[in-house]
Amino acid sequence: xxxxxxxxxxxxxxxxxxxxxxxxxxxxxxxxxxxxxxxxxxxxxxxxxxxxxxxxxxxxxxxxxxxxxxxxxxxxxxxxxxxxxxxxxxxxxxxxxxxxxxxxxxxxxxxxxxxxxxxxxxxxxxxxxxxxxxxxxxxxxxxxxxxx
Length: 148
Hints:
With 148 residues, the chain is an alpha+beta fold.
């Protein structure tokens, strides 16, 4: 049984955003301050990552815990209303995430996925992971071309 009326639920669901969320903004500001310039939601890259570094082929996603099923095996049975809809929706989101990861990796991209709460609590660690991925790509590309 839902605690909200259908009108209230509709307003709550409409308020959820697909991009430009607080965790994305926090990570964007931290990466920009660290000197890493990115493209946001690049439609030319498969899966439309939240941040892309095309030169280094690094794609960064910030996933919401609810929508992308963090600890899914534990929490999948917690839905009280419209259970069939939510199970199908979140499982499809998880499957799509796996498809996007596989496609980008097959194209030579490094894919980083962060949970929104991790970005909120450990922003510096997320920026460090992005920096490490970029630096690793720089090293492999310099070895392949023979330049320093």
